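re the bet — no i am not wrong, look at it urself. input seq straight from the record:
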Amino acid sequence: MGCGGDGFVKDGYAAMNTTQVWQAIVWSLLYPGEDYVHVKAVNVNEGGLTITWRLRTNHDPLKGRVLNDVEKLGEEELLAFTFTAVLGDGYADVEELKINGRVYDEAVIAIAMSGEKFKRWEPLLEKLKGMGFNWGSVPINNSVINVRFYSGNAINLARAMINVLPPILKDILDALGFDKWVRIKRIAEMEVKFRRGEMRITVTGYGFTVHVQKGTVELEHWMKSDVEVDEVIKALKAVYGNGLQARVNTRKSGKYRVVTIPMHVFERYEDIKAQVVKVLCRKLERVKDERKKQIITKHLRRLTPTKGAVAVEHPNRESTQANPGNQNL
């Protein structure tokens, strides 16, 4: 199949049963030429009238052709096919994500499939990964696997899928205005806040999240036990001496412990500062809110007083300086 509904192959040709008018329209765009339509069933109940349409085309099924020739697909064809899969058997929405007590909006695009189907899809999914759209597989039960794109990967995938659609198809989808298309567009319009791990740096082998506030930047490492806290502090002391260790704050936050390194401490250490600058530059490139841009710009100018203006004014220009703290977006 390829665009939703109950898809199957009849006499070697693509066919579909659907109750959704938008699926019938998209089907006709995917399979131009002669298509056959008849009413398979009419369901009348107190809630209204539901018509099940059966469509059949004289074309071979797209899905079989695509999955058998993944290596021959160009990027636009691959994205277009992924889009039809998301419209059909997929899921797209913005979910609430809680991290260390904070609530974030997380974009999610997912496609559910059987284990056998997943094996056929793997080459296609790996090609998507090679294009920069990372995904994860989550078993739902013994027979169904959910392939999920999260956060920045979902946002970038939504944008890429929409960008390859012909203008007339986008106009038709806008006119139909069905929920899944609206949600995909909403995801595409989201700000890429982070991909998992992109807001983290490594200090003495431990991952610290770069937390940007209006007045400062803090590095946070969250743990569940005081033993872990002692290990982190000892590691910091071993590498950076008592100066840094004395300025690490440990506080309880629910069931977690948090080791915090404030900006006035880490800015004294070039290796830490360079990593933070890279994270802030990436964040500056993606943020859309003007107030947030000003806050990040202020912090960058403080951390790179001689080169900060270059990083801010030309975020896409790569620096030729050896110092990693001067690398731009």
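see?? Residues 1-60 form one domain. told u. also The longest helix spans residues 270-286. so pay up
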